[in-house]
Amino acid sequence: MERTDGRSAGQIRTVRCERGLLTRADGSAQWTQGGTCCLASVTGPTQCYASSKEDAERATVDVVFRPRSGLAGALERQYEALIRRACEAVIVAALHPRALIQVVLQVVSDDGGVLACALNAACAALLDAAVPLRTLCAAVSAAHTEDEGGLLLDPTAAEEAAAAATGTFAFLPLLAGGGDSKGDELQLLSSQTRGRLTTDQLLDMIEAAKQGADRLAAFMQQSARQAAPLAQ
């Protein structure tokens, strides 16, 4: 199935990652996938701004998601919660008790798959900030259509609007250094779906997204080798 931009059903848009763009943050990264772009900044580990947020045993992770325009709403709050859980899964938070690690995400442009783009930007920014990480994660969006072929990886905004259901899936681990990551080594970390899917359709979507995440693994690993090593 060939799409309007010439890609095959299982092909991801061109990916670009730039780190260190913001001088006032401890780390930053801009992740671009096709026409979708998110800028992430990381501050910390630093002192918590409120004692109520302190955890005596681990760092507190705070995520702020800002839409391209307008004020954040209920959808952005959902994105913040999902991204925070993903960050908590990869950060070695026990190394910085009572500290705060804040991740701020700004949508620069949105042509579909913005949550996956934001998740990948957050991970790249954590690397740039030299926050101790257990591993990396990669996120991929997918759409289920009624057309022959059924599944589209990394859909554009127009493809998302026409789809019967869409989903965003984050996978780990993508180990940096030594060895290549294989699709069957990736574990589903989190997911968000919209629309109606049968169980089989959902499983097919997860499997297709896993293959897409596997193809992102080499790109993630290359980026990780250029940053601080992961915690063991």
Automatic annotation (TrEMBL):
Query: SUPFAM superfamilies given for it?
Result: Ribonuclease PH domain 2-like, Ribosomal protein S5 domain 2-like
**GO CC list:** cytoplasmic exosome (RNase complex); nuclear exosome (RNase complex); nucleolus
The residues covered by the Exoribonuclease phosphorolytic domain are: 11-132, 138-212
Coiled-coil region: none
Biological process according to GO? nuclear mRNA surveillance; poly(A)-dependent snoRNA 3'-end processing; rRNA catabolic process; rRNA processing; U4 snRNA 3'-end processing
Q: Which organism is it from?
A: Chlorella sorokiniana (Freshwater green alga)
Name the PANTHER family for this protein: EXOSOME COMPLEX COMPONENT, EXOSOME COMPLEX COMPONENT RRP46
- What name has this protein been given in UniProt? Exosome complex exonuclease RRP46-like protein
Q: State its location(s).
A: Nucleus
The record's annotation in InterPro entries points to: ExoRNase_PH_dom1, ExoRNase_PH_dom2, ExoRNase_PH_dom2_sf, PNPase/RNase_PH_dom_sf, Ribosomal_Su5_D2-typ_SF, RNase_PH
GO: which molecular function terms? exonuclease activity; RNA binding
The answer to whether keyword Metal-binding applies is no
Task: Tell me which Gene3D superfamilies the record gives.
Answer: GHMP Kinase, N-terminal domain
Record family assignment: Belongs to the RNase PH family.
Keywords associated with the record = Exosome, Nucleus, rRNA processing
What Pfam families does this protein's entry cite? RNase_PH, RNase_PH_C
